[in-house]
Amino acid sequence: MILCCGEALMDMLPRTVGTEGTAFLPVPGGAIFNTALALGRLGNKAGFLCGVSTDLFGEQLLAHLAASGVTLDLCIRSARPTTLAFVRLVNGDATYTFYDENSAGRLITPEDLPVLPDGTSALHFGAISLIGEPCGTAYEALLTREAPARVISLDPNIRPGFITDEAAYRARLARIIPQADIIKVSHEDLDWLAPGEPFEALAKGWIASGVKIVILTLGKDGARAMTRTLDVTVPARKVEVVDTVGAGDTFNAGFLSALDDAGLLTKEAIAGIAEQSLAAALARAVAVAAITVSRAGANPPFRSEISGS
Question: What keywords tag this UniProt record (predicted)?
Answer without folding.
Answer: ATP-binding, Kinase, Nucleotide-binding, Transferase
